[in-house]
Amino acid sequence: MLAIEIDKLVKQYKNGVRALDELSLKVKCGEIFSLLGPNGAGKSSLINILTTLYKPSFGKVTMLGKDLCREPAWVRTQIACVSQRVSIDEHLSLMENMIFQSRLYKVEKAAARKRISSLIDSFGLEQYLKYTVASYSGGVKRRLDIAMNMVSMPKILFLDEPTVGMDIVSRKAMWKIVRKIRDDFETTVFLTTHYLEEADQLSDTVCIMKEGHELAQGTSEKLKEYTRQNILRIGFADSKKAENSVNLLEEAHILPAISVREGSIFADAGDNRQTFEQVNKLLLEKQVPFEAIEIVQPSLEDVFMKLTYATGGISNGDN
Ligand SMILES: Nc1ncnc2c1ncn2[C@@H]1O[C@H](COP(=O)(O)OP(=O)(O)OP(=O)(O)O)[C@@H](O)[C@H]1O
Ligand SMILES: [Mg+2]
């Protein structure tokens, strides 16, 4: 059985914004699924629908085999959601927060005690028990927030940008916890992120979305194919100079799928050094006023560019 199946989902807000535009995707039970997309792609809109906060305009959502619109109350008993805003009560202690949550979900006392101590252990929260919650760092607060949401033992846990604003150390600690949720508690994790690397490192399946619909969905291995491909960056003093040089490069037919942003030209570098040398030679011969030429790791935008070209070219890579 699938954890979530979404078929041609549309969400149109009253102001006319179509946040989801015939989005379809499938989430398997027990996997970490990442929804990757830039600001405004529709990630939070989708989470709000899946957690029964908003109603879809059109389309069908099936969760754990049941129709979301027909049985929202049942769906609510099977899920938990950690939103971008931390929802812990800073006036209570860590333990009080956990106990409060267990009462909210009517977890029987003895079972709650067992779960809470196992979650504190799994999430590495023991060392913080003696401090007040208000003194915790943002990362630890978020960790506690997730632990609290696990007290009800949800079948599916939704995490809306769980690592936004974190440094790389806290982010890696969070990845470890998300994996533990999947492995130790067998919970399906559905998360959203802006970060290519995060989706790549963490997920079993990734769906890349933009402007309300999916561009690609597949294993993180598949995503790696896009991220492995190096990108050639040619830097200019300003955007105008960069734009003026695009024609010349296009006419030379060395680089496929060229895009311009922030005063640089970006293009697929392939695997070989030959492309780099050919382009470098051409720029020097034609006295193009470039300031830098280098091979860089692809960004999310480069992957979007590649995908939008592959699916018929709906954009030039600028978001
Ligand atoms: N309640 C609402 N009413 C009207 N428009 C909305 C509402 N919520 C979101 N939108 C619009 O829908 C689009 C998608 O927004 P959404 O918040 O779902 O994107 P997101 O992918 O979560 O972005 P971010 O990465 O910034 O969190 C945006 O254009 C946004 O302005
Ligand atoms: Mg959002």
TrEMBL record:
Ranges of residues in domain ABC transporter: 4-236
Domain of life: Bacteria
Residues forming coiled coils: none
GO terms of molecular function: ATP binding; ATP hydrolysis activity
Cross-referenced SUPFAM superfamilies: P-loop containing nucleoside triphosphate hydrolases
UniProt xrefs under InterPro entries: AAA+_ATPase, ABC_transporter-like_ATP-bd, P-loop_NTPase
Keywords for the protein's UniProt record, in alphabetical order: ATP-binding, Hydrolase, Nucleotide-binding
PROSITE patterns from the UniProt entry: ABC_TRANSPORTER_2 (PS50893)
Enzyme Commission number(s): 3.6.3.-
Name of the molecule in the record: Daunorubicin/doxorubicin resistance ATP-binding protein DrrA
